[in-house]
Amino acid sequence: MRVIAGKFRSRPLRSLRGADIRPTSDRLRETLFDVLSAGNPQALAGSVWIDLFAGTGAVGIEALSRGAAMVHFVESSKPAMELIRANLTSLGIDANYRLLQQQTSRAIASLASQQLQPDFIFLDPPYRMHAAYANTLSFLGDSTLSVHALVIAEHAKQFDPGDKFGLLSRTRLLRQGDAALSFYRR
């Protein structure tokens, strides 16, 4: 696993063994960021991200590499949070991020109470945790965090998280290999 493009291009990222963490593949991350930048390498410059169920931190780190101003990494697992910290340190990233070792719903409520207005919210729960998709997307659908944000859910291709959650509606579904990305907006 590596950073695809930007300042930290081709630099390696570490992962944990086992099935608890399934990093977003290099290929799917490349597709995601190609879609978001629409051919403009500066499209993500200055953006604010929330990386929910952050795992290895690969998506948030990719955003930082491509010019994001801030990434909030949210992960409840202590070993995964230590891994994110190690990946950031190995790349020499010492600013423009915040680590939140909390349950997702608590972090969303906390960030919303701070009146954060992110540009992108990425969520990637373990594929087997189907209820986490509905719960998180419903919470985001009713949260002020999603007012201007593009919400992106990575999921297994054969699982459909749903089309509508509160004020959020799916605007695009992109399938690649065994995975898929659902894009939501208010």
Summarize the topology.
Layout: H1 26-37, E1 48-52, H2 58-65, E2 70-74, H3 78-90, E3 97-100, H4 104-113, E4 120-123, H5 130-141, E5 150-156, E6 164-165, E7 168-176, E8 179-185
Parallel strand pairs: 1-2, 1-4, 2-3, 4-5
Antiparallel strand pairs: 5-8, 6-7, 7-8
Kindly state the percentage of residues in helix. 25-40%
Number of domains: 1
CATH topology: Rossmann fold
The pLDDT mean sits at: 93
Low-confidence runs of at least 5 consecutive residues: none
Provide the CATH superfamily.
Vaccinia Virus protein VP39
Q: How many beta-strand segments?
A: 8
CATH architecture: 3-Layer(aba) Sandwich
Largest sheet, spatial ordering of strands: 3-2-1-4-5-8-7-6
Largest sheet: 8 strands, mixed
| Outline | globular
Question: Can you tell me the CATH class?
Answer: Alpha Beta
Describe what you observe in this structure:
This protein is an alpha/beta fold and 186 residues long. The chain has a single domain (26-36, 43-121, 132-185), classed as 3-Layer(aba) Sandwich (Rossmann fold), CATH 3.40.50. Helix content is 30%, strand content 23%. The chain contains 5 helices and 8 strands. It has helices at residues 26-37, 58-65, 78-90, 104-113, 130-141, and strands at residues 48-52, 70-74, 97-100, 120-123, 150-156, 164-165, 168-176, 179-185. An 8-stranded mixed β-sheet has the order 3-2-1-4-5-8-7-6. Helix 2 (58-65) links the parallel strand 1 and strand 2 (70-74). The longest helix is centred in the middle third of the chain and has 13 residues, at 78-90. The chain is globular and about 40 Å long. The model has no long low-confidence stretch (mean pLDDT 93).
